[in-house]
Amino acid sequence: MSNERIDSHKQSQISSLPDEILQHILSFVSTKFAIRTSLLCSRWRHVWSNMPSLCFDNTTLKAASINKTLTFYTALKMMDFHLKTNSALNVPHIDKWIEFAMHCPGTWRICSLISVFFIIMIFQSSSTSIPLSSNST
């Protein structure tokens, strides 16, 4: 059997798995990579959109890309939502993204990481002061 036929046979074996198994496999990689599998063939086109988890763990992702992904996400149940960003341009969107995850039925875990630099920047630009202890004089 030629290498080309073996590769084709392996691909057809993987593609013949039920969506739930493919989605479980894809849940171990970043959402960006999972979306790329939709280019493999028509069978994979929408598999990523029903994954039980979304992982935006790329600090260079732009808000438009995340918003587009959330628009096409159709899972009935979300297990995990992971967001990591250090882009100041994403800060205005974070509440909307977390709200999206909270409104998905069955969400078990939401993890949102924002670079400490931007948290400090937000507090410095805020006009309100936050007391560090309850024993202020």
TrEMBL record:
Which UniProt keywords are present, listed alphabetically? Membrane, Transmembrane, Transmembrane helix
Has UniProt tagged this entry with the keyword Transmembrane helix?
A: yes
Q: Which CDD domains match?
A: F-box_AtFBL13-like (cd22160)
Spell out the protein name for this chain. F-box domain-containing protein
Q: Which organism is it from?
A: Microthlaspi erraticum
Q: Keyword Ribosomal protein, does the record have it?
A: no
Q: Membrane-spanning regions, if any?
A: 106-124
F-box domain sequence ranges = 11-59
- Return the InterPro entries for the record: F-box-like_dom_sf, F-box_AtFBL13-like, F-box_dom, FBL60-like
